[in-house]
Structures are given as C-alpha cells and as structure tokens.
Amino acid sequence: MSLGRIARHLWPTVPVLIALVITGLLLVVFGVSPQVGFGAMLQGAFGDPSRVLSVAAFWVPIALASVGLVVTFTAGLWNIGVEGQIVIGAIAASWVALKFNFPGPMQITFEILAAMFAGAIWAGVTAILKTRGKVHEIFGGLALNNLAIIFTNYLISGPWQPPEGGTFRGTVPFPAKALLPLYGDSRLSPISVVMLIAAVVVVFLLLRGSYWGLKLKALGKNPSSAFLLGVSSERETILALMFCGALAGLAGAVRVTSWFDSLRQSISGGIGYLALLVVMLSAFRVLLIPFIAFFFSAVLNGSITLQLRTQLHSSLGGILTGVLVLMVLLFGELRQLKRFDERRVGSRPDE
Predict the structure, then answer these.
(1) Under 8 Å CB-to-CB from 231, ≥6 apart: which residues?
(2) Which phi-psi region, left, alpha or beta, contains residue 350 (left: φ > 0; alpha: ψ -120 to 50)?
(3) Of 44, 76, 129, 309, which residue has the fewest beta carbons closer than 10 angstroms?
C-alpha cells in the first residue's frame, strides 16, 4: 500500500486525536491529570453493565433524531427545529398515555404513532413557513422549538398537573402498560433498539437506492438544476422535513416512555441539538450515525463521573464533542481545498 493511500485512510483519525489532545490540555490547565480525567469518563460510561445500559438508553433517541436529520441535510435543509419535534412527539405520546386506555400492546403502539404524526406535522409547519412564507428553516425551527417548550411547561403546570397541584417537575406517572418494556432495571427498551435499526435500514435504502433519495440529493446539490430536471423543491422540502419530524417524534416517544415515565420539563434534554453535531460528524453517512451517536452518549454519561471525581463541571464532555465536530469540519474543508488545488494543477496545460 502506498504512503498516499495510507495517509488517506489515517486522515479521518487526525481531527479526533487533535480534539483529544485539546481536551487533555484543558484538563492539565485545570489541574487534573489527563489519565485521571479520561479514566473517570471511561469508568462512568463503561464501568459496569448498568452504566453501559444507561449509555445505550440515552443513545437510542440521539441516533433516531440523527438518522432523520440525514434526510433533511441531504435535501440541503438545516432542520434546527428537530429539538421541538422531539418535544412535540413526547407531548403526543404523553397525551395518549394519560387520556386513553387501549387494550394490551395497542396502548404503546398508538403512543408511538401519535408521536410520529405530531413530529411530522410540527416539522411540516416549518416546511410551510419556508416554502410559502419564505421563512428560512433555521429561524422557523428555532421559533417552533421555543413554542414546544412553552407548551410543555403549560401542560405540566396546567391541564396535566398532578392532583397535588401545579409543578414544573412533571405529570403523574404513566400506567405501566403505557411504558416501553425495559431490559432489567435499566432504562433501555429492546423495542426501541429494534425501531432504531429499522430506521437506519429504511433511510439507508431510501437515500441509496430510491428515486426519492436521488431527488433529495439533486435538491441538496443544486436546487436550480434540480428544478430544471423536474424536481419539485416545495414538495420534496415538505416531505423531507416531515420524514425527519416523524423520526424525531419517535425519539420523543422513546424518551418519555423509557428514560422517563411521565412528561417532564426539558424532556428532550438537548438531544435535538446534539443530533445536529452527530450528523455533521458523520458527513451525512447513515451507517456511521449509530456509532458516532453512541460515542457522544458515552462521553456525556461519562462526564457525570468526571465531575464527581475531579470537581470539574460535566460540560467538559460537551467541550470534547464540540471540539471534535469543529476539527472534523475544519479538516473536511482542508481536504476539499486540497482536492480542488490538485484538480486545478492537473488541468493546467503543460508549459
């Protein structure tokens, strides 16, 4: 194997190593040995089976939202509103759990369907604002995120408040049959893992081998050329955002019926914004998303132990993931510039 080919294979690991070095330097600045700091994070994430299961339980909704975001990113859309779509999905699932009493497994089935439908509709509002109102999806999504959070707080402290009175802690716990079955004493539901695997396979096949996936890629690469080829930017924008919203709503349902047992304030836990980082780090490759999302989940869960052992704030894990994404994006741009220069030099006539 030539040195050039080896360098190409090793190139993706460079930003990861740089991010780890920067984080290690931050630990030294704050008077903590990098060995102790990273060891604490590893112990917090993988120290025993219960911690591994906790990482996996947090991983599932991150990965679900990230898989949905690949669809919108492929179409050239920045679906910042994914956070609100997760929240609305959690609200819809909670509504079914609190207000209906379906027999057997139909209860959780209708909760999941309601969450996916609500997430799709909420994303559809962003799509309509963009296509008809000319409001960029970033601004529309951010506005709807805030509305979803406000609506959650209103429900918790108002119509859905516990019998003892209004509170921002949460609603009354859901009935047992309204919750996803969990693995042992953990918060991980095997059903949620199956749904995640199905979502990854479906999105991979849609983007790789379907006519719709081809239209989304054309729209994302060059909207003007896609229009000349007969691709409706309005229709595909709406469908892409609603598809992502449905998976984000599913993530909200998983969150509220397995990680929690009731609707809580800040039910999403910032998963939507974290999913944006996962997708950027994956370079929009669906099959990489479960692994990157698991890494993020492990870092964030391990950061809690880091805080307990070193008295450093757990946000250090967020710094690590943020620096990692920044380095990957930076090195990706450098790689594109290098390829551009190589093509330009290769196209020059011999002097």
Answers:
(1) 215, 218, 219
(2) beta
(3) 309
Residue 172: φ, ψ to 5°:
-65, 150
Per residue in 69-121, pLDDT (tens digit) is: 999 999 999 999 999 999 999 999 999 999 999 998 999 999 999 999 999 99
Indicate the pTM of the whole model.
0.87
In a domain, 348, yes or no: no
Q: How many residues does the chain have?
A: 351
153: domain CATH number is 1.10.3470
Tokens of 58: 């947090």
pLDDT in tens, 127-165: 999 999 999 999 999 999 999 999 999 999 888 988 776
Whole domain around residue 198: which residue ranges?
A: 3-335
Asked if residue 207 lies in contact with residue 68, where contact means CB atoms within 8 angstroms, the answer is no
Instruction: Decide: 244 and 71 in contact? Cβ < 8 Å.
Output: yes
- For residue 233, what are its two tokens? 């930017």
Contact 237, 131 (CB under 8 A): yes
Angstrom distances, CA of residue 24 to CA of 18, 29, 159, 327, 330:
10, 9, 48, 15, 20
Q: How far is CA 293 from the centre of its chain?
A: 8
Cα gap 40→33, rounded to integer Å: 11
Residue 282 belongs to some domain of the structure: yes
Q: For residue 60, how many other CB atoms are within 10 A of its CB? A: 27
Is 344 within a domain? Answer: no
